[in-house]
Amino acid sequence: MRSLMMALVAAGVLASTGAMAGEADVVSAEATQSPDGTWRFTVTVRHGDTGWDHYADAWEVLGPDGTVLGRRELLHPHENEQPFTRSLSGVDIPETVDRVTIRARDNVHEYGGATVEVLLPR
User: Fold this and answer.
1) Which fold has domain 2-119?
2) 3-state DSSP call for residue 86?
3) Which of 6, 19, 41, 90 would you label with 60, given CA atoms 20 to 30 Å apart?
């Protein structure tokens, strides 16, 4: 009985460690318009990546109505690089949109961390 209890406690500890990394937060974001009219976003994300089981795996550019205008996939954990910055080019933004929201996700909590609103300098 004691070994069963110890196994259950150990399983609980292991299950909870993945959640300890929390949600992925956008720390900062910058937008620049290219000569072809598309946009390049440079985004800094902070997340307590713990390895493949829990890491920031994407960030998105959202229009004011919540439409996803661009998405950057993050293909591996960044345990030793926090916060980290990545860019996405070629994002089409309608002329009527003057601001976007950047949000990040992780592969456990999905979306929910801090976001950043970016005014588009036109």
Assistant:
1) Immunoglobulin-like (2.60.40)
2) strand
3) 19
